[in-house]
Amino acid sequence: MKGTTMSLLSSLVNSVKTHALPFLHSTSSSKPISPQKTSSPPSLLGGLGKIIKSQIDQIAPQWIQSIQNQKTLAANPGLQKILDGQATLKKSPTPSKETGIVQDLLRMKGYPIDDQKGTQRGYFGEKTEAALKKYQADHKLTADGIVGKKTLASLLSVEASKTTKTSSVEAKTKAPASAKEFIDRYASYAIESQKQTGVPASVTLAQAALESNWGKSAPGYNFFGVKGTGPAGSQSLKTWEVVDGKKITVSADFRKYNNPAESFVDHANVIANSRYLKQAMDHTDSPFAFIESLQSGKAKYATDPDYVKKITSIINSHELEKYDEMARASAD
Questions:
Q1: End-to-end alpha carbon distance in the chain
Q2: What is the Cα–Cα distance from 170 to 77, expressed in whole angstroms?
């Protein structure tokens, strides 16, 4: 992983050499700058800043993923043994943390899996094996459905080109046909999000269900209607908000993601790091107190006056609190 991080830094340096230095050379002048032209240097720095920022925006998600992968390996000796060629992982009726992580990695690469026994992750069944074989074939690995040294190293890789290429596979996946199918498909993302950020999985899953209409409307993998620019850029979309008690339609820029995992974790980080919403993080032990807190501050999470009622109803009717317990148990 150290080599991967260094290569990302090298990519940034080379890009600045390629793009920034010619820019500086082309805009320099041997003539003295008159007092009337003193605005040129800020313009120049602004142009250079945009170039560097664009490169960081491309590299940062890969760099962050590289660091997360290092933490994953440090916390899971079983995965390290596979990387060292001392063990493999294959279809088994017995669940394991290693299988759960491999499933998450496959999803992040764009190979969805819906074969957890019940709703619990970590079971290496037929669909996990099929997704793994597809991934192996697409990446010119031995398509045997076994996680060995080369396959795991490939899954842990963070090259942007592979992420972009494989994400198109999941883009072709049909929207869930039912609430149960939505929950089965995306519960693992909510669980992983809770493990990383502390935001209750039940709240995250209920919000994703409500705001994406159970997966039927999540353009750019934006399940939560988060505005701004995401890891994959932005998109202009129409949405509705409640202003002065009236429901109105507005257009805005919304974040785009490369996969659902990015969307779920980013949504949780928005809550955890917002000065207006982070008070909810004092209630992570209760999803109901958590969602109440999101709507009780000066700046509310949603403009819909019935938002708390709707989220609470989804959590209760689909018994989503069990995913909070799963997240706690798997984090121990």
A1: 25
A2: 30
Please, are residues 294 and 269 in contact by the beta-carbon 8 Å criterion?
no
Q: pTM here? A: 0.52
Question: Per-residue pLDDT tens for 162-173?
Answer: 333 334 444 456
pLDDT in tens, 30-55: 333 333 333 334 444 445 555 544 54
Bigger pLDDT: 207 vs 82:
207
> What are the start-end ranges of the H helices in the chain?
2-15, 21-27, 40-75, 77-83, 97-108, 126-138, 149-155, 160-171, 179-197, 201-211, 260-273, 287-294, 307-317, 321-331
Please report which confidence band the pLDDT of residue 3 belongs to, taking 50, 70 and 90 as the band edges.
Answer: low
Q: Do domains 79-171 and 179-331 have the same CATH topology?
A: no
Under DSSP, is residue 145 helix (H, G, I), strand (E, B) or coil? coil
Q: Which residue has the tokens 């043994």?
A: 81
- What is 79-171's CATH number? 1.10.101.10
Contact 89, 146 (CB under 8 A): yes
Q: Which of 266, 58, 262 is nearest to 159 (CA)?
A: 58
Strands 234-243 and 246-255, by their bridges, are antiparallel
| The token pair that represents 155 in the structure block | 């899954």
How many other C-beta atoms are found inside a 10 Å radius of the C-beta of residue 105?
Answer: 22
In the chain, where the domains are located: 79-171, 179-331
Torsion of CA 51, 52, 57, 62, to 10 degrees: 130
CATH topology of domain 179-331: Lysozyme (1.10.530)
